[in-house]
Specification:
single chain; 76 strands; four-stranded antiparallel β-sheet; 1 helix
């Protein structure tokens, strides 16, 4: 749950984008899917685009820009949104107070009125095909878009006609031919004709974490249920956390004393999706799994990191360890903080009084009671000069000067002057800030979008709602500032598939988006379908069911992964292999770790080194690399992007190999990303030991840089 409450020294929620650095044309940049343009931002914080050769195609001139979609991109000019093409030509004049990308020939757009922003849909000429009259809309998906007005949701077609009348208290977009809807107090699924394919009989419905949800009994014992509501791991735990990467942390008290059961201390273990114990832990988890590692501590107070097999990857030797962020783990020892990589190698020597997690490539640090920012090489990018500094989000970070809060960009330029009593990071284009004891929301120019009126307020989620307190009640507001409903309790969470966790009288339950407590507050605290099958857990063992709920693969494995390219990873006897969709073992479990197949190859680990096998299990690239960098599209991994994969040899330096395992670009970089649209971002060290970075083409030639990394050049 991403939650930012406005009080001194606010802690901001994590984003996942990586930021690079440049001394000439700093940018938060990305190459949109199917496009060859990369967004860059100049020293005046104006946005433009370069091509794969590093040439400026659209000169930096916009106040903001979104992703290219269907040949155009939404741009912000003087507070209004319009659209330009890939040549930078204006195709739709800036005129909208809010706008989104084009999908299926339509883009959502809205304008402010007496009731706040009202949304409709425009075509490629900028004309409203669906008049802006709805308080909330989602983009078109599978030919339909969800609209809400005033409190009920339905679905319209591309001409704006209702295909499914607004009769649902809450509804979600169509995915794979089904949409999750709420009728009365129950949840179910409809098809594009509005027919209840799965009748609304559930008190709630959710995508669950990897197919399983944590729920307690009346006796406050936690277990895991599957999407049918059946317990696949019986309630038995005093603490249970969601599944991630196929494993979950569970804890049990040392006695049946109610106080011990509620507050601990607990002993912890890792379980798989069958409830099978993977490892008994002699350490206590102090965070969540990120990049396959979780910070842990010993009874003696020493901190390290553990992997999802329960193995200590970084021995407990630090005073403190934080969750990994953007490939680095912040650690503290002897009163100073630095950062290590996933192998435990020190990347940033402990030297700062405080070092926070990385966001958008930068981390705030404190030295001599002042805050500044460093990049991922430890280079000081913005000198310590602020009384407080929050995390970067959407290119801006809140900072405090003279007791007032404002915002800076990634080069330290003041974008919004310090003037607020408090401020949180930007999320979805809005930041909650307070003035004169009340909280409201501003846009990236510093203009008020929702006037300050709340006791406190949080960021808006993807559902377009934000918790905000008025008087003694916590309510949920929309982007116009209108109260949609009042929460039945305080400390409510963000909505996920229509439900939010909420605390009432010290217990947790779940409410729907009408504010109704649909799962009573009684709590202290299966994988998704892929290629037609879903992993489920029975009697502590994993198997796979089809969409009718029949077992295709009987439960027999300690851990499994999703199906990709027709294969799924399985673990038996702590060794990993692959099965096909009939359940046949096609590659015997024999590896320490495996990653899903992509383009006919799977990454495997033996003796601590990585290589690749084909679909027959034949080793095509022998295990020899210490690290393989990859990306993903949905649940599908990407190793060889545009024919090349970034890997590190035993020197720890990265280069690029082809599918024969030969280095096409020799190891020389301290970091290397996959190729996208003909470019790859790399970091290296100059001859005089200074950190540098830039973009390579597939021939290993720099088309941009290398430049010193002390600027704000980035890829998202």
């Amino acid at each position: 749950m991403r939650r930012t409450i406005l009080f001194a020294f606010t802690v901001i929620a994590a984003l996942t984008a990586a930021i690079l650095a440049s001394s000439s044309l700093p940018a938060s940049s990305w190459a949109a899917e199917g496009e060859t343009l990369i967004r860059v931002t100049d020293e005046n914080n104006k946005v433009g685009f370069i091509n794969a050769q590093g040439e400026i195609v659209v000169a930096p001139q916009f106040d903001g820009a979104q992703e290219f979609s269907e040949g155009v991109v939404a741009v912000l000019v003087n507070g209004k949104w319009g659209y330009v093409d890939s040549a930078g030509q204006v195709v739709i004049e800036p005129q909208f107070d809010d706008a989104g990308p084009f999908l299926e020939g339509r883009a959502l757009a809205g304008g402010k009125g007496p009731q706040g922003i009202r949304y409709g849909f425009i075509d490629s000429t900028g004309q409203f095909v669906v008049e802006p009259k709805y308080g909330s809309v989602t983009s078109f998906r599978e030919g339909l878009a969800k609209v809400t007005e005033p409190t009920f949701s339905g679905y319209i077609d591309r001409q704006g006609s209702f295909v499914i009348e607004p009769e649902f208290q809450q509804a979600f977009g169509f995915r794979e031919g089904l949409a999750l809807v709420n009728v009365g107090e129950k949840w179910g699924y409809i098809n594009p004709e509005g027919e209840a394919v799965i009748p609304p009989t559930f008190v709630f419905a959710t995508d669950f974490s990897e197919g399983l949800a944590v729920v307690p009994t009346a006796e406050n014992k936690y277990g895991y249920i599957d999407p049918s509501g059946q317990f696949v791991i019986e309630p038995q735990f005093d603490e249970a956390r969601p599944f991630k990467d196929g494993v979950a942390l569970v804890g049990q008290a040392g006695s049946d004393d109610p106080a011990a059961m509620r507050f601990g201390p607990y002993t912890y273990r890792l379980i798989d999706r069958q409830g099978q114990t993977i490892a008994e832990l002699a350490v206590t988890p102090s965070g969540n799994f990120v990049d396959g590692l979780v910070p842990v501590s010993t009874l003696e107070g020493r901190a390290g990191y553990m992997d999802i097999q329960g193995q200590l990857v970084v021995e407990p030797k630090y005073d403190v360890t934080l969750e990994f962020s953007e490939g680095l783990g912040v650690v503290g020892i002897n009163g100073k903080m630095g950062a290590i990589d996933k192998t435990g190698q020190v990347i940033i020597e402990p030297q700062f009084d405080i070092l926070n997690n990385f966001f958008e490539g930068l981390a705030s640090f404190m030295a001599d009671n002042k805050f500044g920012f460093v990049d991922k090489s430890g280079q000081v990018v913005i000198p310590p000069q602020y009384e407080y500094a929050g995390q970067f989000s959407e290119g801006l970070a809140p900072v405090s000067v003279g007791g007032k809060y404002g915002f800076i960009d990634q080069k330290g330029n003041e974008v919004i002057k310090p003037q607020f009593d408090n401020a949180s990071s930007f999320i979805n284009g809005l930041a909650a800030v307070s003035a004169n004891g009340k909280t409201g929301y501003i846009d990236p120019t510093g203009a008020w979008v929702i006037e300050p009126q709340f006791v406190y307020a949080f960021e808006f989620g993807d559902d377009g709602l934000a918790p905000a307190a008025i008087g003694g009640d916590e309510s949920y507001i929309d982007v116009s500032g209108t109260v949609v409903f009042t929460s039945p309790g305080l400390y409510a969470g963000d909505f996920k598939d229509g439900l939010a966790a909420v605390q009432e009288n010290g217990r947790w339950g779940f409410m729907d988006q009408t504010g109704k407590l649909v799962i009573p507050a009684q709590f202290e605290q299966s994988m998704y379908f892929s290629e037609g099958l879903a992993a489920v857990q029975v009697d502590n063992l994993w198997g796979f069911i089809d969409q009718q709920g029949s077992f295709v693969v009987e439960p027999q494995y300690e851990f499994v992964g999703d199906f990709t390219d027709g294969y799924a990873m399985v673990v038996k006897g702590n060794k990993a292999g692959f099965i096909d969709k009939t359940g046949q073992v096609v590659i015997e479990p024999q590896f320490e770790q495996v990653l899903n197949f992509a383009d006919g190859l799977a990454a495997v680990q033996q003796n601590g080194l990585w290589g690749f096998i084909d679909a027959t299990g034949q080793v095509v690239i022998s295990p020899q690399f210490t690290q393989i960098n990859s990306s993903s599209v949905g649940q599908q991994p990407v190793f060889f992007a545009e024919g090349l994969a970034p890997v590190s040899d035993q020197s720890g330096l990265f280069g690029y190999i082809d599918k024969t395992g030969q280095f096409v670009i020799q190891p020389q970089f301290v970091w290397a990303d996959i190729f996208k649209d003909g470019l790859a971002f790399v970091q290296l060290t100059s001859a005089d030991g200074q950190p540098q970075q830039g973009y390579l083409n597939p021939q290993g030639e720099f088309v941009w840089g290398p430049v010193a990394s002390a600027g704000g050049f980035g890829m998202q």
